Amino acid sequence: xxxxxxxxxxxxxxxxxxxxxxxxxxxxxxxxxxxxxxxxxxxxxxxxxxxxxxxxxxxxxxxxxxxxxxxxxxxxxxxxxxxxxxxxxxxxxxxxxxxxxxxxxxxxxxxxxxxxxxxxxxxxxxxxxxxxxxxxxxxxxxxxxxxxxxxxxxxxxxxxxxxxxxxxxxxxxxxxxxxxxxxxxxxxxxxxxxxxxxxxxxxxxxxxxxxxxxxxxxxxxxxxxxxxxxxxxxxxxxxxxxxxxxxxxxxxxxxxxxxxxxxxxxxxxxxxxxxxxxxxxxxxxxxxxxxxxxxxxxxxxxxxxxxxxxxxxxxxxxxxxxxxxxxxxxxxxxxxxxxxxxxxxxxxxxxxxxxxxxxxxxxxxxxxxxxxxxxxxxxxxxxxxxxxxxxxxxxxxxxxxxxxxxxxxxxxxxxxxxxxxxxxxxxxxxxxxxxxxxxxxxxxxxxxxxxxxxxxxxxxxxxxxxxxxxxxxxxxxx
Length: 478
Fold this sequence. Notes:
By secondary structure, this protein is an alpha+beta fold. The chain has helices at about 5-15, 55-75, 80, 95-145, 190-200, 275-280, and strands spanning about 25-30, 35-40, 220, 225-230, 240, 255-260, 265-270, 285, 300, 305, 315-320, 325-330, 350-355, 355-360, 370-375, 385-390, 400, 405-410, 415-425, 430-440, 445-450, 455-460, 465-470. The strands form six sheets. Strands 3, 4, 21, 22 and 23 form a five-stranded antiparallel sheet that branches. A four-stranded antiparallel sheet has the order 5-6-7-8. The protein is elongated.
């Protein structure tokens, strides 16, 4: 009987719902798995259910959702406008174009901001590097100035002959102890003294061939004499010189040196004489206002003449005032690797001094790489006259002037090389020659002539060396 009770209830409901078209029944399991029957019957008398207490809040929520949908539609923009919608949330073509312009401008602004940040970081790194170099230069200069020169009582212990010389001013930072240069041992003192006596004796010349200016044609070059060796990479290449016509405040015995390895070469070291150079104690350290290019500098009449880095500009640095006294571009001259010597080193412009004054050895595009010789005014650096030779600059290792003649060196690395060409500016004629020259250390990066001492000064693979020269009688020139 109990089992028939649900069936009876269902039958009653179905009979009560006759005539109602919307009566429905749903049968299914609840969450616990039990079978349930659900019936839905439309009210025969009420068109709608009475409003509940939360109806107003629902309407408000619906209104807000509608407004939110409209705002989202407006912000999304493009899709509705592209479909040609005309409702209140649509975006017109003008608005769409304006939005695209703003987006493009924003992207460009962000790109420019990123680029500026990168450039700022790069400039900051460059400033830090320059500050570091400046501090190192100042510390080096201060250290050299604060170190006193060795007194006469120490001469016996620092003689380079037959022993070694301490080079404390060349000790790299972070190292301690005495620095000894192994290249100072040249043999017994007697041999050195005998060699000095021999080289001081002038070569005999035929009677009646003397020249009041001491000029003549180069016929022989002596063995190289080593004076000292640089022991840092900055001294692999360099230039050293003495002023043949010195003026105050420095005498002609003052020796000047520039180590030219580096991207910002500015230090000029001065030694009271050759003995102080051998000992390695400078008495003067100058910081040049503009960087030096390569090994082509020279000293003349109280001024340092050199080529400004990465340019064809020549500078005259006055030693007395310690400032630039003159500057001038060398017309059409190649620079920074256009027409160097065969060993490279940006040796496009080589300045030289002889009995007749100041010279520049270089080349131009018009000369197609051939050596051009120019005589310069030593005060204004104006070009007074030029000569074009028929030997290419890149085929020779170095060049120098003696008595108005250009001489070129065949090789910078061969131990036994020779002077292979000469050009006479008086006759405007060139010719091949063969005067032996020895590159003792196999990398000769600088050769200059000193007319006061009748010697060649050279920088051979860290080593400062010199050569005696012998000149023949001065030929009668037309």
